[in-house]
Write a structure and sequence with these properties.
45% of the residues lie in helices and 15% in strands. The protein is of the alpha/beta class and 254 residues long. It has a single domain, classed as Rossmann fold, CATH 3.40.50.720. The chain has a seven-stranded parallel beta sheet with strand order 3-2-1-4-5-6-7, sandwiched between helices. Strand 5, helix 5 (156-175) and strand 6 form a beta-alpha-beta unit. Helix 1 runs parallel beside helix 2, helix 3 runs parallel beside helix 4 (105-132) and helix 4 (105-132) packs parallel to helix 5. It is globular, with a radius of gyration of 17 Å. The protein binds nicotinamide-adenine-dinucleotide (NAD).
Length: 254
């Protein structure tokens, strides 16, 4: 029996329809949490909830575009209406835009709107509810691209957005450090999700670079990354705030 870290608690997950977010939603539920799943992809998001139900967990799906302030507000208030409180949030929705490598203006705006402004807006809506119930824990998804740029893959907007998520996380962590609120960033290395498959399929050089990137000799399974996220959100990580946790198979150690 897994330790029920989130028994009686409510966890919000954005980007919960696929990849790391879906795995995290499942893990939150397996550890006793009630899960509010948000995504732009309704079919796959509903599917995540069906998977949770099949394991006798509790969840609800909220169609949400994190780039829209109204949509984020509806998600957070909807989750509170449904479950009564918010204890934990995994602000994880993110994209790479295929036009980013050509320094495209629309790609820049879209990437920043989702990867950075989306995280900011989620926290703005979530924190007041967490404070009302005595505190909480937030994990925001950054990346190894929050620390470095990749010379083999020009992704200016993505790299900027993920660096900024770490700065934003630290600022909010310090602001609420005395309020029983912990705010951390999760920095995955290359993880076998749709996002990465899209980049790997782009050209052979990218594929080779991705497959050989980590000293551990493989890409991560999304579940390995989600395990780190839910640990960071749990009471087991009670003295950790303002931290950027790297989960990269040793990539940044090189
Ligand atoms: N896969 C990797 O190698 C990798 C590495 C580092 C960081 N990350 C980060 O991890 C996070 C999750 O990525 P993933 O690899 O699981 O990708 P994924 O594509 O499998 O999942 C991302 C989810 O976010 C959703 N989403 C996209 N735009 C959205 C929006 N505007 N509003 C709400 N939901 C939206 C998608 O529909 C999808 O379900 C992202 O922030 C990504 O930048 C991934």
């Amino acid at each position: 029996m897994l330790e029920q870290w989130f028994e009686g608690k409510v966890a919000l997950v954005t980007g919960g329809a696929d990849g790391i977010g879906r795995e995290a939603a499942l893990l939150f539920a397996r550890r006793g949490g009630m899960v509010a799943v948000a995504d732009v992809n309704s079919d796959a998001g509903e599917q995540t909830c069906e998977m949770i139900t099949a394991e006798h967990g509790t969840s609800a799906f909220f169609h949400t575009d994190v780039a829209s302030k109204d949509s984020v507000a509806r998600f957070v208030s909807g989750a509170v209406d449904r479950f009564g409180r918010i204890d934990v949030a995994f602000n994880n929705a993110g994209i790479t835009d295929p036009r980013d490598d050509s320094w495209d203006d629309a790609a820049f705006e879209r990437t920043l709107a989702i990867n950075l402004a989306g995280v900011n807006q989620c926290m703005k809506e979530q924190i007041p509810h967490m404070l009302r119930s005595g505190g909480g824990a937030i994990v925001n998804t950054s990346s190894i691209h929050g620390f470095i740029a990749n010379p083999a893959l020009f992704l200016p907007a993505y790299t900027a957005s993920k660096h900024a998520v770490i700065g934003l996380t630290k600022a909010v962590a310090l602001q609420y450090a005395k309020d029983n609120m912990r705010v951390n960033a999760l920095c995955p290395g290359v993880t076998a999700t749709a996002m990465i498959r899209q980049t790997m399929d782009r050209d052979e050089a990218a594929r080779k670079m991705i497959e050989g990137h980590a000293p551990i000799g493989r890409v991560a399974d999304p579940r390995e990354v989600a395990e780190a996220a839910i640990w960071l959100a749990s009471g087991a990580a009670s003295f950790i705030t303002g931290h950027a946790l790297v989960v990269d198979g040793g990539f940044l150690a090189q």
